[in-house]
């Protein structure tokens, strides 16, 4: 296919802005496009060589190099081109002007007798630009310039204009994905009424080039049967938002699967044979950022070909407990990925399955998807099924929500279990409803809490006590009421030391002055006081501090972290339940003052 056709359409498309006109012009272009290059034409229209999710290099040619290439192609000096560029402000137009001047001069001189250069084809342009984008290492700069110069030499003025604009990332044809979908429906389906079929296919395979190719070769009938394909991301299903739990249940048809809503990075994980791909919420290829996740998935999820979805969460390397989302940011900032993995380990909490061994699971109800998902994940310390309950009871839902928050989750996802609750790729609907606390406030101050129990570590730290039940002092009742379980902030030396102290303080039953609903692996006599900081104070049914104040539970500290021991304080000098209540109230006040409609 001649590249001339593309350049001419770019020129026409650039001059119109009406969506309808754009669509019909684009449909016109698609009709003239060879079947075997239609995917490439679609990418070129998008200003790309390939879809973003492939994680392939971009053209990455600076303007200086582009000027150099144009200079080689036209024998006009770099300085002269630079000067023209300064006055015109568009390198594409400069290329056009130079080529046109040269063309008329040569026509005049030779009256058309000059040997015409070979016409540029889409294939040639695409292949050469691919080489430009992918050549690396020593000498690659010269190779890139030479390839571009070669294309520009053979180009007509109009072709040169759009080639330069494309390479410069300044194509001005404002065509979004939606318009391309419309045009594809018209070209290959015969009208807009085929748009839903094309759109559904795009939701399952977020690759417009791939969709166009299927349509061009197999028509709309083949597209109707399209399934997800490992390696091509599925557009994610999104949730609606509500704040009234009763309304949530009635919206999803009463019976719901309620998942913890984890606060990490969404990961759509594909397996195709021995290859793993991880795509982000925005469908970027993030596989290189999570080689550990790729390894866990291939090790602990059974199957040769599948697509699963989950949240990637930072965890405490010692205890496996959830850590704040920000740690993923620290991890990404590290240049050495192996160091990053060690310092900021992650776990994956899977919540959906979209494809398994050739079968499209997006069309199956959630109950079936989840059952299958559970059956393919092997028991291990790194990949888990999202913690969930199945309920139609508002009180149970609320209780679970507070439990989720107190364990470091952001809230819960209420998901419909209706027979038609499919995976609605690419759309936000009422089959999933998010129920979360949307505010973030650091605790204004640290608290001093008493250690009243200890838990064994999981995984690598098995055997050692590595998380600890902490309590505030209630002077009215002279008891210790629990506030949180702390597992992070301890150095190895502090932890080792603590094992010895625990051996001295441990007891078989709770100390009579300890009020707790949680049951640790070992109870301790209240003696050790530690300074603790957390993200915020929340209500939790798991803790007993100020339990008489709120129907939903006691007050608890989210993401608590050990700062230091306070040997200068006796247990009765610890922060009191009243102080914690005051802190909670002032935190609420702060939140109410914030302009947010999302507080729960
Ligand atoms: P949205 O994704 O709805 O546009 P957002 O990006 O701001 O909004 P949230 O409002 O936090 O995200 O809620 C949706 C996100 O919650 C999902 O994209 C997913 O990453 C995350 N999530 C965590 N746990 C779950 C779960 N169990 N089920 C589904 N999504 C979950």
TrEMBL record:
Catalytic activity: ATP + (deoxyribonucleotide)n-3'-hydroxyl + 5'-phospho-(deoxyribonucleotide)m = (deoxyribonucleotide)n+m + AMP + diphosphate
SUPFAM superfamilies, sorted: ATP-dependent DNA ligase DNA-binding domain (SSF117018), DNA ligase/mRNA capping enzyme, catalytic domain (SSF56091), Nucleic acid-binding proteins (SSF50249)
Keyword ATP-binding: yes
Uppermost EC category: ligase
Chain's role: DNA ligase that seals nicks in double-stranded DNA during DNA replication, DNA recombination and DNA repair.
Protein name according to UniProt: DNA ligase
Enzyme Commission number: 6.5.1.1
InterPro entries: ATP-dep_DNA_ligase, DNA_ligae_ATP-dep_bac/arc, DNA_ligase_ATP-dep, DNA_ligase_ATP-dep_C, DNA_ligase_ATP-dep_cent, DNA_ligase_ATP-dep_CS, DNA_ligase_ATP-dep_N, DNA_ligase_N_sf
Keywords: ATP-binding, Cell cycle, Cell division, DNA damage, DNA recombination, DNA repair, DNA replication, Ligase, Magnesium, Metal-binding, Nucleotide-binding
Family: Belongs to the ATP-dependent DNA ligase family.
Cofactor list: Mg(2+)
Binding site for ATP: 259, 266, 281, 311, 351, 428, 434
Listed GO MF terms: ATP binding; DNA binding; DNA ligase (ATP) activity; metal ion binding
Domain ATP-dependent DNA ligase family profile: start-end pairs: 339-474
A Pfam cross-reference name: DNA_ligase_A_C
Active-site residue list: 261 (n6-amp-lysine intermediate)
Gene Ontology biological process terms from the UniProt entry: cell division; DNA biosynthetic process; DNA recombination; DNA repair; lagging strand elongation
């Amino acid at each position: 296919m001649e590249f001339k056709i593309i350049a001419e359409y770019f020129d026409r498309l650039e001059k119109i802005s009406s969506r309808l006109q754009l669509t019909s012009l684009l449909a016109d272009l698609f009709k003239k496009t060879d079947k075997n290059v239609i995917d490439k034409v679609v990418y070129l229209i998008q200003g790309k060589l390939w879809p973003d999710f492939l994680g392939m290099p971009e053209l990455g040619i600076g303007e200086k190099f582009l000027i150099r290439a144009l200079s080689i192609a036209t024998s006009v000096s770099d300085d002269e081109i630079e000067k023209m560029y300064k006055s015109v402000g568009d390198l594409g137009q400069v290329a056009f002007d130079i080529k046109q001047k040269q063309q008329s001069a040569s026509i005049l001189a030779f009256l058309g007798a000059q040997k015409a250069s070979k016409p540029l084809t889409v294939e040639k342009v695409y292949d050469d630009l691919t080489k430009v984008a992918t050549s690396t290492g020593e000498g690659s700069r010269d190779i890139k310039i030479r390839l571009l110069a070669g294309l520009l030499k053979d180009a007509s003025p109009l072709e040169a204009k759009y080639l330069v604009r494309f390479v410069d990332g300044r194509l001005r044809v404002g065509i979004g994905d939606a318009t391309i979908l419309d045009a594809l429906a018209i070209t290959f389906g015969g009208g807009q009424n085929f748009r839903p079929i094309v759109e559904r296919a795009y939701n399952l395979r977020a690759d417009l080039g791939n969709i166009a190719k299927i349509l061009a070769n197999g028509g709309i009938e083949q597209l109707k049967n399209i399934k997800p394909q490992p390696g091509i991301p599925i557009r994610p299903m999104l949730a609606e938002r509500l704040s009234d739990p009763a309304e949530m249940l009635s919206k999803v048809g009463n019976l719901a699967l309620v998942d913890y809503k984890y606060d990490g990075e969404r990961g759509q994980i594909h397996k195709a044979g021995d290859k793993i791909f991880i795509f982000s919420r925005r469908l970027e290829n993030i596989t290189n950022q999570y080689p550990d996740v790729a390894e866990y998935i291939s090790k602990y999820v059974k199957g040769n070909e599948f697509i699963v979805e989950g949240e990637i969460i930072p965890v405490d390397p010692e205890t496996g407990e959830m850590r704040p989302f920000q740690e993923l940011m620290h991890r990404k900032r590290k240049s050495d990925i192996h160091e990053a993995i060690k310092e900021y380990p992650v776990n994956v909490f899977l919540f959906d399955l979209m494809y398994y061994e050739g079968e499209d699971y997006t069309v199956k109800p959630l109950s079936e998807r989840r059952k299958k998902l559970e059956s393919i994940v092997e028991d291990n310390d790194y990949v888990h099924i999202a913690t969930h309950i199945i309920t139609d009871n508002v009180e149970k839902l609320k209780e679970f929500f507070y439990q989720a928050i107190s364990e470091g989750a952001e809230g819960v996802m209420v998901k419909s279990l209706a027979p038609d609750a499919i995976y609605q790729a690419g759309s936000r609907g009422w089959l999933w409803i998010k129920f979360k606390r949307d505010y973030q406030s650091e605790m204004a101050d640290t608290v001093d809490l008493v250690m009243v129990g200890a838990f064994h570590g999981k995984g690598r730290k098995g055997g050692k006590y590595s998380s600890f039940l902490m309590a505030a002092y209630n002077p009215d009742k002279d008891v210790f009421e629990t506030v949180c379980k702390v597992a992070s902030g301890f150095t190895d030396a502090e932890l080792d030391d603590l094992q010895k102290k625990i051996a001295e303080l441990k007891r078989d039953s709770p100390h009579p002055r300890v009020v707790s609903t949680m049951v640790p692996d070992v109870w301790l006599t209240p003696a050790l006081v530690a300074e603790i900081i957390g993200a915020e104070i929340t209500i939790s049914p798991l803790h007993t501090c100020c339990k008489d104040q709120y129907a939903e539970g006691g007050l608890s500290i989210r993401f608590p972290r050990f700062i230091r021991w306070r040997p200068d304080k006796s247990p009765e000098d610890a922060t009191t339940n009243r102080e914690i209540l005051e802190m909670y109230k002032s935190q609420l006040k702060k939140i109410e003052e914030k302009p947010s409609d999302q507080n729960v």
